[in-house]
Amino acid sequence: MKVGDLVSVMNEWTRHNPWMKFEEDKRPLALVQKIEHLPNNVRVHLHNGEKHRQETLEVISENR
To answer: What is the phi/psi pair of residue 52, to 5°?
Structure first.
């Protein structure tokens, strides 16, 4: 995951059960604005001001 990537925010259920993803699920999309490395954690700042742990996000499209 890098700055500029398009990510979706996973809910608790799909994060622990990745096989439960369905095409019709509507998950919020956001762009990665900043990545902050903390002890035992990586916090990702999104363009809408939200902050999430890296494990709660799924990369949809990479900015490469």
So the answer is: -140, 155
How far is residue 18's CA from residue 43's CA, in Å, rounded to a whole number? 21
Q: How many residues make up the chain in this entry?
A: 64
Structure-token pair, residue 25: 């699920």
The pLDDT tens digits of the residues spanning 12-57 come to 776 667 666 666 667 778 888 988 888 777 888 988 888 888 888 8
Of 41, 2, 18, which Cα lies nearest the Cα of 10?
18
CB 9 within 8 A of CB 56: yes
Question: What residues contact 3, with CB distance under 8 A and at least 6 apart?
Answer: 32, 33, 34, 35, 63
Q: What is the pTM of this model?
A: 0.69
